[in-house]
């Protein structure tokens, strides 16, 4: 036994505390098992089977039959569900039934709010498919090697023979589909909260440009909720081509919705408000400044003719360590993990308030305000 080990078992640390610490190390070593169990449950269709069942909560045996699984797999399914219920995706209750004249107990399951996000067509199932795919996860196993040896700016490239995430996605149609479904699902979720709980953000706004708006999910929701706001989806030409298609934004029947193709690094259409929903975290500071300067120009009005508008740039992104998140372990963990994801996959970053202030001031804004928290993200406004 090493001297270090002897010291741990000495008077400084009790044996029980030491064993608790070991359990903590186990848990963080095994977190990937919960992730893989979650991926398995989504691929099996467990959340959908629970949701569609007339029996609520659904029994283990009926859940297995609904998937369907061979009865010999029932106990394995029970064991799969146990850590996922502990993680808060399902609730588990036990109910008695008669088997061979004897009373036995069987687990019954229902969906929590987090579990409902896993339904097919929901915001989280394509996210799981995308980021827990074996090819996407390859670079994480090489992270320490990247710190020591790799000259690549992005760890993802080091794990994929120099190819970027975007290049890999173009070669894999399933991954590309999962990515866009992830973005659409998240936008639906955020848009629902935005138009129902943050209506004051759109007061006095007559025109809005959704920069990097993809197939228009956010803009369509805003346009429907606020018919007097002229909304424009602005993205690369080949991306916005899907806005007026049902499989995209579904904006073909929205009169106050428009589409403009272009580059956010060059020029953004003028408007009262510019929306950047989860855009800036993809980019390093230099390219964020280019985007923000274009946004400021779009909302500043015609300064040469002294015609200024009370425009603003609306930013939905994380503010790491903001006061509404501090003390909430779940939200803090989401921020820290997402920051690592952005760094390792895209060379992007999640920023704290000091970093946001620096960017806004460097881009020429006169001020900014954090309006409110949206889970681990925040709703901010920057003023020209």
Automatic annotation (TrEMBL):
Active-site residues (renumbered): 281 (proton acceptor)
Keyword Transferase (UniProt): yes
Family annotation (Pfam families): Dimerisation (PF08100), Methyltransf_2 (PF00891)
GO biological process annotation, one example: methylation
CDD domains: AdoMet_MTases
Domain (O-methyltransferase C-terminal) ranges: 140-366
All copies of domain O-methyltransferase dimerisation, residue ranges: 26-120
GO molecular function, one term: O-methyltransferase activity
Entry keywords, A to Z: Methyltransferase, S-adenosyl-L-methionine, Transferase
Family matches, as PANTHER family: O-METHYLTRANSFERASE
Protein name: Uncharacterized protein
Organism: Linum trigynum
């Amino acid at each position: 036994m090493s001297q270090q080990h002897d010291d741990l078992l000495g008077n400084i640390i009790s044996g029980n505390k030491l064993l608790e610490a070991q359990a903590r190390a186990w848990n963080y070593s095994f977190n990937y098992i919960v992730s893989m169990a979650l991926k398995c449950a989504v691929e099996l269709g467990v959340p959908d089977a629970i949701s569609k069942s007339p029996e609520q909560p659904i029994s283990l045996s009926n859940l297995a039959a609904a998937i369907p699984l061979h009865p010999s797999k029932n106990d394995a399914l029970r064991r799969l569900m146990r850590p996922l219920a502990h993680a808060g995706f399902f609730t588990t209750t036990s109910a008695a039934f008669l088997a061979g004249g004897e009373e036995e107990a069987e687990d019954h399951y229902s969906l929590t709010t987090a579990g409902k996000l896993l339904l097919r067509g929901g915001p989280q199932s394509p996210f799981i498919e995308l980021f827990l795919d074996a090819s996407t996860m390859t670079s994480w196993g090489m992270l320490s090697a990247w710190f020591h040896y790799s000259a690549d700016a992005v760890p993802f490239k080091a794990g994929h023979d120099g190819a970027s995430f975007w290049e890999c996605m173009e070669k894999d149609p399933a991954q590309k589909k999962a990515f866009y479904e992830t973005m659409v699902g998240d936008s639906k979720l955020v848009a629902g909260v935005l138009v129902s709980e943050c209506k004051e953000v759109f007061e006095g706004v007559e025109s809005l440009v959704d920069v990097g708006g993809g197939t228009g999910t956010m803009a369509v929701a805003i346009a429907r909720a606020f018919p007097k706001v002229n909304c424009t989806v602005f993205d690369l030409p080949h991306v916005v081509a899907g806005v007026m298609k049902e499989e995209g934004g579904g904006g073909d029947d929205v009169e106050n919705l428009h589409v403009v193709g272009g580059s956010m690094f060059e020029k953004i259409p003028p408007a009262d408000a510019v929306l950047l929903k989860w855009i800036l975290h993809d980019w390093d500071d230099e390219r964020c400044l280019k985007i923000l300067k274009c946004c400021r120009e779009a909302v500043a009005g015609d300064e040469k003719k002294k015609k200024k508008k009370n425009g603003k740039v609306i930013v939905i992104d994380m503010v790491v360590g903001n006061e509404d998140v501090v003390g909430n372990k779940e939200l803090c963990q989401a921020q820290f993990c997402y920051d690592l994801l952005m760094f390792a996959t895209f060379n992007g970053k999640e920023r704290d308030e000091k970093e946001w202030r620096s960017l806004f001031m460097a881009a020429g804004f006169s001020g900014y305000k954090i309006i409110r928290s949206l889970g681990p993200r925040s709703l901010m406004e920057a003023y020209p």
